[in-house]
Amino acid sequence: MKNIFIFLLLFVPFSGMAQVFDADAVLDKAVAVMNADAPLQMDYSYTVYDEDNSVVMKDNGMMRLDGERYSVVMDKMGVWCDGETQWSYMLEIDEIYITDSSSGEAQNLSPLYIMENYRKGCTKDVKLHDDNLFVTLHAPADSEFEKVVLRIDEASYRLETMNIFMPNQGYVEIILDKYQIKCNFASDVYKCPVEELDAAEIIDMR
Asked: 59 and 73 in contact (C-beta within 8 Å)?
């Protein structure tokens, strides 16, 4: 009886403790899952809010992703990256901006790039809420962004939302949904269909 009582004293406090997660480990696993799922396709929703939390711009469409290669085709905007070159098209101004994929302007819509590179130099924390892991990346004072909040499904470790907060400028919310994995895409889906946008002005920033 005494041994059972001691066992209960030891066990009960630990049974009520919440599971502890490491932010870097969560991000590493989410990146590994996304790479394992690739090539993949998902619905992509993009909303820009100002500092008063009002919607400035909203767009949605589809993303295709395979490592450093991706394309996001939405109603008002399209971005294509073949791993070397990135094309960004804005319908409203009918312009195509071309950059190297490694430049500061590139890859800012890629969830893989954000999970792998935005965390550099950041302090991080992670919380579990309603079966989702919320990883927050707090940027240094001299960064272009203030923080990034990533919502990752605890069961699948698939990324569901990215909120990118800018200093005194509101934030961008990206929602990823309806994952289709192990897709078979032609390589040209990651290149801008320039011939279909022949009226657009091309601005080469390389």
From this structure: no
Q: How far apart are CA 27 and CA 195, in angstroms?
A: 38
Token readout for 105 is: 């302007």
pTM of the predicted structure, to 2 decimals: 0.84
pLDDT tens-digit readout, 122-150: 999 999 999 999 999 999 988 888 999 99
Q: Which of 87, 93, 90 is nearest to 206 (CA)?
A: 87
Instruction: Answer whether residue 1 is part of any domain.
Output: no
* Domain count along the chain: 1
The string of pLDDT tens digits covering residues 48-64 is 999 999 999 999 999 99
Q: What is the DSSP letter of 89?
A: E
Q: Is residue 8 part of a domain?
A: no
The answer for residues whose C-beta is within 8 angstroms of residue 168's C-beta and 6 or more apart is 51
**CATH number of the domain encompassing residue 93:** 2.50.20.10
Lowest mean pLDDT segment, chosen from 8-17, 155-164, 192-201? 8-17
- Closest by alpha carbon to 86, among 96, 76, 98, 104? 98
Backbone torsions φ then ψ of 193, nearest 5 degrees: -80, 70
Report residue 47 as tokens.
Answer: 């909303």
Report yes or no: 156 and 91 within 8 Å, Cβ to Cβ: no
- Residue 196 belongs to what domain range? 19-204
- Alpha carbon 148 to its chain centroid, in Å, reads 9
Q: Helix (H, G, I), strand (E, B), or coil: what is residue 61?
A: strand
